[in-house]
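ok trying again, last paste got cut off:
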Amino acid sequence: MSTIKKIAISTGGGDAPGLNAVIRAAVIAAINRGWEVVGIRDGYNGILLPKQYPQGGVFALTRREVRGITHLGGTILGTTNKGNPMNYPVQQPDGTFKETDRTGELVDGMRKQGIDALISIGGDGSLTIANAIAQKGMKVVGVPKTIDNDLDRTVMTFGFDTAVSFATECIDRLHSTAESHRRVMVVEVMGRYAGWIALNSGISGTADAILIPEIPYDIEKVADKIRAREKGGSHFSIVVVAEGAMAKGGSRAVIGNEVGRLERLGGAGERVAKELQAATGKESRCVVLGHLLRGGSPTTFDRLISLRFGAAAVRALDEGQSGVMVALDPPAVRYVPLSEATHRMKVVPLDCDTILTGRDLGVCFGD
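nice, full thing came through this time. structure:
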């Protein structure tokens, strides 16, 4: 018999389509077991920064709160990619910041709320935090979330399919305007260190060149592809660029850094567009999809795996599991240790079938 009476749910990092579906499935599955469910606002801020929430940093999640949210984007709990409790930035009297480990304080705060277990929904950063919380003695199950699909030990994360589907639709729309104006259209998509979105949407949208972080590019190779198309009678080209793509011997395009969060990337697509225009003489325009990839309703696939993940997280807790992540291993959802899921990033293998398919189709990867 499970000793759990009350669980908490937290969503951290960037938002992704499907978060609300996970929340709904977990809440209903827990309530059906007689458990009480609460949500923590904005990652763990609801506990670590309670004064910011006069309405309560932790609130009850009942059937009413999760009714009709499966199809909604975003998260009803709120989220943040700042304030990692493992390295929490605390401002010193001299204005500088010192990083402090607040995970012990976080666990104590949850225990004071009567919370017996936590379902943490997030990417590699959030699940690394979840693993640290589990090591402090709190029962924790993680749910893999990232549109970048860069979490290890799961075939796919929810949010990825929605992002790729939207990016592909955008690429489809750009073909006609690119051809009409005989332009090079550069489409920048998200993907800091892994190029899954760029690769899958680029191949699906019949892009002519795809630049991903895993393959440092030579801009002349891309220009050669455009010149060859021009010579063959195709007077336009579509180039898909992941935001983390970089030239050989170069660096990622960074537009800013903030305390307590990852460097802010931006400008990779614009940089490629300018270089291609200079190299080929063809007018080149850049379209940045950015946060559009995070918004909107989840696809059927993402809704289904989100609901499966949410229910599986509750089952895992009911079975006495802790320190694990639910993972898609078709046709099943299995449990894998959080330490294994977060010890390395799942980047695109250079010999994967999708890249091989692209090469067979004549797609340029800049190498």
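cool. The radius of gyration is 22 Å. Residues 6 and 36 are 4 Å apart (CA to CA).
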